[in-house]
Design a protein that fits this description.
six-stranded antiparallel sheet, single chain, five-stranded mixed sheet, 3 helices
Amino acid sequence: MGKINIYYMKKLILSIFLLISILFANAQDTIVKGDGEKVSAKVTEIGSSYVKYKKFTNLNGPDYEINRDEIKVIVFENGEIESFNQMDSSSNNHSKKNTTPEIASGKAQVYFIRSTGFAGSASAFKAFIDEEFVCNLNNKRYSIHEVDSGEHIFTVQFAGKNPKKRAEPIKINTQAGKTYYVQMVFQTGILKNNLYCQEVTASSAETVLINLKQDTKCF
């Protein structure tokens, strides 16, 4: 009986250790500078003219400060993106290497973007447009979809190809000939993980897309 208890205790300790490791791995923010340099950090303060952060490799160390005008975008640990004005348009590599397909007449174009979350096909996020399943999106991937102009509902969920009522929807009123970007946001928790989507600007999306691969199959 004692051996059995020890066995299950070891499994419990290992499970807790793995959970803590996963949470720690997803707890970093990424500061992207105007020149493309990336800083792994934990942002502690965003001021009117500066951003303070701690180096991710030394969270107990000193605070560092960087001017806002040196920053292009901050990608937070949960996938949310905050853009900063950048006067230097030469750093926009994605725009210069634009591979966006042409948009069909009368249609709008929508990107689903996934830059966070667990890796592996088993953890693919399910994307829906107007409650219709459109893509199985793995980590570090994006997909492109065409929709009719007008209002559409976008959701994302962990599993299943049928839409779930508890999925948090966003509505976008699309216009023909324009492109829209939907970011999948993944939040880790001790007892429960959360997944939802948010619309982001073209400049924010372009900063992330240069590091992702397009998923053309989706299923």
